[in-house]
Amino acid sequence: MTDTIAAISTPTGEGGISVIRVSGADSIQKVGRLFAFKGKLEDVSSHTVHYGHIIQPSDRERVEEALVTVMKGPRSFTTEDVVEISCHGGIISVKKVLDLVLEQGVRLAEPGEFTKRAYLNGRIDLTQAEAVIDLIRAKSDRAYKIALRQVEGTLSKHVKLLRHRLVELMAHIEVNIDYPEHDVEELTTAFIQDKCGQGIADLNRLLHTAEQGKILREGIVTAIVGRPNVGKSSLLNALAQENKAIVTDIPGTTRDVIEEYVNLNGIPLKLLDTAGLRETEDIVERIGVERSRIALTDADLILLVVNGNEPLHEEEKQLIAQVKEKQSIIIVNKSDLPAAVELSYLEANVPPERIVKMSVKEEEGLDRLGQAIGVLFFGGQLETNDMTYVSNVRHIHLLKQAKQALEEARKAADERIPIDMIQIDIRHAWESLGELVGDSIGESLIDQIFSQFCLGK
Ligand SMILES: Nc1nc2c(c(=O)[nH]1)N(C=O)[C@@H](CNc1ccc(C(=O)N[C@@H](CCC(=O)O)C(=O)O)cc1)CN2
Ligand SMILES: Nc1nc2c(ncn2[C@@H]2O[C@H](COP(=O)(O)OP(=O)(O)OP(=O)(O)O)[C@@H](O)[C@H]2O)c(=O)[nH]1
Ligand SMILES: [Mg+2]
């Protein structure tokens, strides 16, 4: 039987109240010795709160005024008997109460040990436990929502369904190996290939959410590039709703890369305004142009701005050729002025959803730009509330491993390799997914995962 553990579960420092959590078979009896109130703690019903005082058991001196909650296992967070003591906030009083609890022979919990017990006792699976860490660490509303969905177990549900299908496939193959004369649906290679293909597609979908999730958490690195004076800095200012970059009608105004985080239609962008691209003798400007080219290579998204009121320059045609293979949008700016740009040239080179006409000066077309980016990165859907996002590196690694195993199985089927060999690959995929939800995972890895938690969680 596991021992009884305790820890302060609220942050240290001054606060309204502080909570000490105690979990284990002896928790009710041990806290009962320290708690003076109208009844006997062993006799109270589960999920009830009681007012009283924490006392020094030797002389019954009052140490603290407290509310004590009892949650009897298995109906508790850890599935063990849990007692929570809420005392006045502050460093000294909570510490005193904790010391009294520990003096009863209760052990101080390790970081994450309550959540680890919840996992080991089957209340939550590993992805849910890991999501608890993400939830605590979430720094943005969106990161928080993604983690909360995972605490609720959405990722596990997906992965368990996938595992279930793989078990069915393995059973199907097994029957075929053991009873070749048995009257099962004939196991053609096409059948295995089809099932593996479905699994690979599912895994790809989950892995794709990892990319999207990263974008949603960290922002799309977006380089605004183009010739001098086309309105790049004006665009940054319009998106930031602030005069962050200097705007003048002198070509070559921006010299350095200027960064700004903005939120466009719910999509976070890390904008980089860059120096206008041109040949120049000016040393400072030349360094700026060099930096623009680096930003252009490194960005996740390129916004190539051109003047709508003049024909395309030769360098712009080259730039279009360069960026069209990447995630990029051509912004045809200055639509408030008479149009002179060769739209037919643009349309022949870039799909229409990646060409956005706008007037930055009149702030016309910013919405359309947001939509175009949404289509490019999320296929137009940006439904974060109901989505499962894979965000943990350990999960991504295991999903990739499972995908690779299924790809090998499919290839083996293709090459007419014996069915029991193919079975091994499918089993590997099943095992990787099992490790993801914590079904077949070693003790050291469990310890490593839970040690990332804070004390008292
Ligand atoms: N004070 C306190 N707040 C907390 C926690 C906690 O442990 N203590 N939690 C932890 O970090 C989270 C909540 N997690 C919990 C999960 C299940 C149960 C529980 O007692 N479940 C029972 C009863 C449910 C019911 O009555 O419907 C059960 O599932 O059987 C309690 C807390 C967040 N807030
Ligand atoms: N008419 C019109 N003028 C604009 C528009 N957008 C920007 N401008 C003007 O174009 C000029 C250049 O704007 P900037 O934003 O400094 O251009 P830039 O691309 O950053 O230029 P460099 O930093 O020199 O590369 C300024 O005079 C702006 O007011 C627009 O939509 N319509
Ligand atoms: Mg500029």
UniProtKB/TrEMBL annotation:
For binding GTP, which residues are annotated in this chain's numbering?
Answer: 229-234, 248-254, 273-276
HAMAP family per the UniProt record, alphabetical: GTPase_MnmE (MF_00379)
Enzyme Commission no: 3.6.-.-
Source organism's superkingdom? Answer: Bacteria
| Amino-acid positions noted as binding (6S)-5-formyl-5,6,7,8-tetrahydrofolate in the UniProt annotation, renumbered to this chain | 21, 84, 123, 457
Member of which family? Belongs to the TRAFAC class TrmE-Era-EngA-EngB-Septin-like GTPase superfamily. TrmE GTPase family.
Q: Which UniProt keywords apply?
A: Cytoplasm, GTP-binding, Hydrolase, Magnesium, Metal-binding, Nucleotide-binding, Potassium, tRNA processing
Localization annotation: Cytoplasm
Q: Which cofactor does it need?
A: K(+)
Q: What does the annotation say about its assembly with partners?
A: Homodimer. Heterotetramer of two MnmE and two MnmG subunits.
* Function summary: Exhibits a very high intrinsic GTPase hydrolysis rate. Involved in the addition of a carboxymethylaminomethyl (cmnm) group at the wobble position (U34) of certain tRNAs, forming tRNA-cmnm(5)s(2)U34.
Where is it chiefly localized? cytoplasm
Q: Which PANTHER family does the protein's record reference?
A: TRNA MODIFICATION GTPASE GTPBP3 (PTHR42714), TRNA MODIFICATION GTPASE GTPBP3, MITOCHONDRIAL (PTHR42714:SF2)
**Could you say which residues bind K(+) here?**
229, 248, 250, 253
- Cofactor binding: number and manner: Binds 1 potassium ion per subunit.
User: Matching NCBIfam families, A to Z?
Assistant: mnmE_trmE_thdF, PRK05291.1-3, small_GTP
Which residues bind Mg(2+) per the record?
A: 233, 254
Which protein, by its recorded name, is this?
tRNA modification GTPase MnmE
Q: Where is the TrmE-type G domain?
A: 219-378
